[in-house]
Amino acid sequence: MKLQIDNLDGLGPRDYTSALDAFRRPHMTRLSNQPDELRFSLVANSTDFIVPRLGSRVTLGRTNGQDAFTGYLKQAPTFEYLGWGEQGPIYRYNLVAQSDEVLLNEKRLPDRCPFVERSAGSALRQLAANLLPGVFDTSAVQDLDTLATYVSSPQKTWSRQAAEISLQTRAGYSVRDGCLRLSPIGANVYALHETDPEFRPEGLTLVPAGPVINDVTVIGEMEPQAYVTDYFVGDGLTTKFYLSQAPFTKTNTTLLDEEYVTSPLEPTYWTVTDPKNAISVSGGKLRVAGGTGADGATTIVFAEKIELGGATVLQHGDVTFNGPSSAVIGGLYPNMISIAGCLAGFAITPSGAQSNIQALIDGVPAGAVIATISGHHYVLTTRLYSQAIYRRQQIFHSSLHPAGNGIGGEEMTGDVRIVLEVHDIDPSNPASQVAPSTVLYDGTVENACDFCTYATVNAANLQCSVTFTRLIRAVDAEVRTAMPGEGYVTRLVGPLSQGSECNISSSAELSFYSAYVPAANQQIVVQYRSEGRALARVTSPASIAAQKLGYDDGCHGAVRNVKEPPARTAMDCENAALALLDDLTSPAWAGTYETWSDFLPGSAGDIFPGDALALDIPSRSATFQAVVRKVEVDVRDVAGEHSVYRLTFANDAAEPLAFEFQTSLLASSLEVTEIANAQVGQLYLADLTAASITEATSTTISIDTGTAPLPSGGFEARWSDGGWGMGNDSNLVGRFATQSFTIPRLSRTQTCYLRQYDASAPPRYSRFSAALHVDYPL
Is the peptide bond before 762 cis (omega within 30 degrees of 0)? Predict the structure, then answer.
């Protein structure tokens, strides 16, 4: 072996092999999804000896050209006085180096929006490129699974985030020889047989790590549950209305607040295509002056996709038009950027010396046209509302479902209401600052795409300046009103300064601003999702039957509070339980194996965390596959390249590689329906997302479930959200075999819960209820 250190003094790497302290041999530690570490000591052996300094590059290489370690000194050498020699005092220099990613860990990651609908490999490459573009070879980074979302934070090191991404895909990352790698756990498998003549039985320690688990309860995050619709009526005076339940909402977050103060635009947020140099940033404004004349050729595209789930507000900016323009501003595109493929946006077309603004829906102009006025500026906003809060399931992994073949990840269908509005501001009229916005389009797209590319500008010939762009995750609630005999219109929820008409507080209070007090007999409808804890309990009947012994009924349970990957819904919890049962229903094993480098298992010239060991040790009744978690290398003979390897390994039953758990206890009950693993994905019917109240009198309430009943099935109505099933009538309103039916009205304020059921024995029901709440005078 050769130890080389480049002190970065312009003289290149020096050979320090002869200076290695014979009494303190080099020792390497490799941990799964963490930086490698090399500890070694040097003793000055010549008058030209140079003490390595902090940040020096260290390479420990073999004669075959392979490097056992590459990295950088992470701290200054420590000195030990050894005595006096012929040339003066003699010191031992103790050094610690970390693998190449120390360069990335020393830098602050930029602020950025969460990764959305990105592969794990794409996210990892992006994080490295944000810090040191072009420094590392990323050709060995595999894409693996698509992440629904991953939130990057400057408060975490690059290594920590790389480990989190790797965990979500059951993969391993490493940085060696200037090469960044991401590959599935267990991609390399090495056999360890006790019949192998090079096997060292005295070096093997095996520990049965725990009992078989076949009944798993998974605790997830707070999730959206019942589909709630609250009905109120205005009296001309009341400004506050109290929702029947606290709305579920993802954290009310500003994903992007672009004030256009940096030039060029930050690549962590924007990708700019500008062949004619029409785009610039100056004076706190984005300025566009021209284009190529072609659709999709001059664009400013947001770095991440937009998830069409829950409530999202896209403020495309305060726009001042400087001349007749042809463009799409604030376009959402399911596929490539083109006018014909635009799901929703603002079409800007020339009109004499000015421009027209019109809604663009599915590539076609729709609704009213606003003609721009010289000197005015226009705030363009798109509001998206969907009762499908998440549009893709989380993915979970096990040893049987490795990277690229996880459980879950399916897209979730959902309708999306799209509202396009324009706030016309006249600088000479202060009242226009709080005047109502003009709604150009208000409609629902059924079974909308789940993710879209967002282009704030698609300019054929655009002449304008823009002062800001904001992307906001808003309260996941939709407010609509209607005067008697008229259709419903969407009311704009948010701050008054943004042209909004009402707001919803964290205390479940709907408040209308004074200028927008609901008129007498004006109908008010608020739609949202209630919230509750995501839970699932899944069993393996086959394992339970196999484990029966004497008084033991074979059912062995465990509760896991999942932190990573996030189990955001009950369906996610069920999929997480399936992944856990893949491994927990097998015996748990852990252990260590110590051997010389010459006798490593199988054909391994070297071995790393994430490699798999196929153990076949009949004398210890142990035949299983495990994954190496830690490798310690003690270099005993530098010249002869002989080292002692100590491998620490475990299977996923002992230490899951694709989960991180937390130990916090819930104050709420863990009461949840127990289901067998074969029932996951088969147990529930569709939720009644379109159920509504069609009429409310002083004595009756008429309901339309929004869907026809299943053959020999129907709809169950209850006064409270519980007791579902044919055997409980305590809170039952009734069971109905028609899509529309009437229930009695008992008070001014009343709530009814609905689920559909089928003809199965026992019947299957919807997973979540539709909650219809009415607060009308009798």
Answer: yes
Which band of pLDDT confidence, cut at 50, 70 and 90, is reported for residue 604? low
Quick one: how far is CA 44 from the chain centroid?
A: 52
Q: Which residues contact 364 (CB under 8 A, 6 or more apart)?
A: none
Tens of pLDDT, residue by residue over 411-468, are 999 999 999 999 999 999 988 887 888 999 999 999 999 999 999 999 999 999 999 9
pLDDT attached to residue 251: 65
53-62, 96-105, 178-187, 665-674: which range is least confident on average? 665-674
CA of residue 528 relative to chain centroid, distance: 22
Residue among 196, 175, 174, 198 nearest 184 (CA): 174
Both tokens of 17, joined, read 């092999």
- 497-534 confidence digits (pLDDT tens): 766 889 988 789 999 999 899 999 999 999 999 999 99
Are 403 and 184 in contact by the 8 Å Cβ rule? The answer is yes
Contact at 8 Å (CB) between 356 and 371?
A: yes
Give the chain's count of helices (H) and strands (E): 5, 54
Residue 252 has pLDDT above 80, yes or no: no
Q: Would you tell me how many other CB atoms lie within 10 Å of the CB of residue 194?
A: 15
- Which residues are bridge partners to 95 per DSSP? 40
DSSP for 282-326, please give it. ETTEEEEEE--SSTTTSEEEESSPEE-SEEEEEEEEEEEE-S--E
Q: Pairing mode, if any, of strands 377-386 and 364-371?
A: unpaired
**What per-residue confidence (pLDDT) applies to 88?**
75
Q: How would you classify the pairing of strands 674-676 and 509-512?
A: unpaired
The structure tokens listed for 340 are 């014909």
Query: What is the pLDDT averaged over residues 698-716?
Result: 96
Q: What is the pLDDT of residues 148-173, one digit of tens each?
A: 899 999 999 999 999 999 999 999 99
Q: Which two tokens stand for residue 178?
A: 């200037």
Only one residue has tokens 């700019």, namely 272
Q: What is the pLDDT of residues 264-315, one digit of tens each?
A: 999 999 999 999 999 999 999 999 999 999 999 999 999 999 999 999 999 9
**What is the DSSP secondary structure assignment for residue 685, as one 8-state letter?**
B
Residue 87 CB contacts under 8 Å (≥ 6 apart), including other chains: 47
Mode of pairing for the β-strands spanning 115-119 and 377-386: unpaired
**Domains located in the chain, CATH noted:** 2-99 (2.30.300.10), 104-184 (3.55.50.10), 189-212+586-650 (2.40.30), 252-474 (2.60.120.200), 692-775 (2.60.40)
92: tokens are 């031992």
Q: pLDDT confidence of 89, banded at 50, 70, 90?
A: confident
| CA pair distance 329, 346, nearest whole angstrom | 5
* Chain center to CA of 459: 31
100: left (phi over 0), alpha (psi -120 to 50) or beta: alpha
CA distance 479 to 576: 35
Q: Are 255 and 310 in contact (CB under 8 A)?
A: no
